[in-house]
What we know:
Elements: E1 2-5, H1 15-36, H2 45-65, E2 70-73, E3 82-83, H3 85-102, H4 110-123, E4 128-129, H5 130-142, E5 150-152, H6 155-164, E6 172-175, E7 178-181, E8 195-199, E9 202-203, H7 204-212, H8 223-240, E10 246-252, E11 258-264, E12 289-293, E13 298-302, H9 313-327, E14 331-335, H10 344-352, H11 368-372, E15 389-394, H12 401-411, E16 416-419, E17 427-430, E18 433-436, E19 443-446, E20 449-452, E21 468-469, H13 474-478, H14 483-494
Parallel strand pairs: 13-14, 14-15, 15-16, 16-21
Antiparallel strand pairs: 1-2, 3-4, 5-19, 6-7, 8-9, 8-10, 10-11, 12-13, 17-20, 18-19
Helix pairs in contact: 1-2, 3-4, 7-8, 10-12
Amino acid sequence: xxxxxxxxxxxxxxxxxxxxxxxxxxxxxxxxxxxxxxxxxxxxxxxxxxxxxxxxxxxxxxxxxxxxxxxxxxxxxxxxxxxxxxxxxxxxxxxxxxxxxxxxxxxxxxxxxxxxxxxxxxxxxxxxxxxxxxxxxxxxxxxxxxxxxxxxxxxxxxxxxxxxxxxxxxxxxxxxxxxxxxxxxxxxxxxxxxxxxxxxxxxxxxxxxxxxxxxxxxxxxxxxxxxxxxxxxxxxxxxxxxxxxxxxxxxxxxxxxxxxxxxxxxxxxxxxxxxxxxxxxxxxxxxxxxxxxxxxxxxxxxxxxxxxxxxxxxxxxxxxxxxxxxxxxxxxxxxxxxxxxxxxxxxxxxxxxxxxxxxxxxxxxxxxxxxxxxxxxxxxxxxxxxxxxxxxxxxxxxxxxxxxxxxxxxxxxxxxxxxxxxxxxxxxxxxxxxxxxxxxxxxxxxxxxxxxxxxxxxxxxxxxxxxxxxxxxxxxxxxxxxxxxxxxxxxxxxxxxxx
Length: 499
């Protein structure tokens, strides 16, 4: 059994933390009142504080027993538990209320979405499991076309899978519109690089289509969805396509011969990811940013815009750009591939080293709190800003802050963009909240506020296209080649100041 905590609808924290904050805040007010009125309350302060403490404890116990803070869930039963139609309808109404009332819905039509919700109610059946309900509802959530809005399984089912779930056993990736194995299987004869035709009679095109319609991304593009499939196929395949114990796979070997293999599902903790947690899977052990400096160019890797514990981003950048100036390095490659975004202030800090004058970032069409916190403040040029040649490497992971960074880079003509289309554009919605559904305890992460860059002429519903497109091929992976980086270095060579 685990205790599944309810999330606050006011702040992005759970209700236990919110209640504790309220208790501490009220206790401090009471304490200051004691100080201010110490003469009038002489001899009564201990009694008043005692009454307040007892009242708070009784209130906390009442809220606990009424389920305000959350509820206990049986982890062992999570996979097979059946829900009544009434319970599932109640959960879907929670989702609909949160989305329709709070999500800005800038990438979809409100009336169409409302009709889609009505249709889903009619498809709910009595006795559905959580996974069956999830597969029914999730395409509707993905169709909101908001990369920050994700529905994912309950905490209980996620923990249940740690012991019970068996996934498609071999790592798979998506290249262009084809699926390939990324590891050998000596027993079946499958080799890395073999192309998949079908899995359990479902052809690869249908598998890709099914996965895309279940993965959230901004606007009408598919770049983010395809990036997730290429890097997290096995977990997404389990959730949205097939969680069988056995798989019959038709595939092509290196000579183009069609073969068949029988594979058994296997446990693999690295595949036990939700549609939201996979955005952070690559950064569990840190390694958020790094750099390398060579004789004639430098490489700045930005895996995510999040702060490392050991070295703060501001200090990291200050030291890095100072060294570039002292070493007179004329060329810089910024590698943004795999970066899903995160902290916009870190993006602004990096851009301060790439501009030479004050430049607007977000529009000022933001609520008072965001403007007070500095979101709408312009970017000021840093002291040791870089004045050499710049190349930016991008891919489909880049949405949210990473897409904003790319859009700013392109609009202000800071350098050359190489790679593939980003997963987002100059505008997105975030300031996200979390909701735990009352019955299935599935979790909804959804956005509430629009963040838009002060730019013009860029597409709203599609990603930012690179100046030079470099597609990824299966042979590049097999031979561990970096065609995007190689193209970036060729560009820098063509501009001079390169050995």
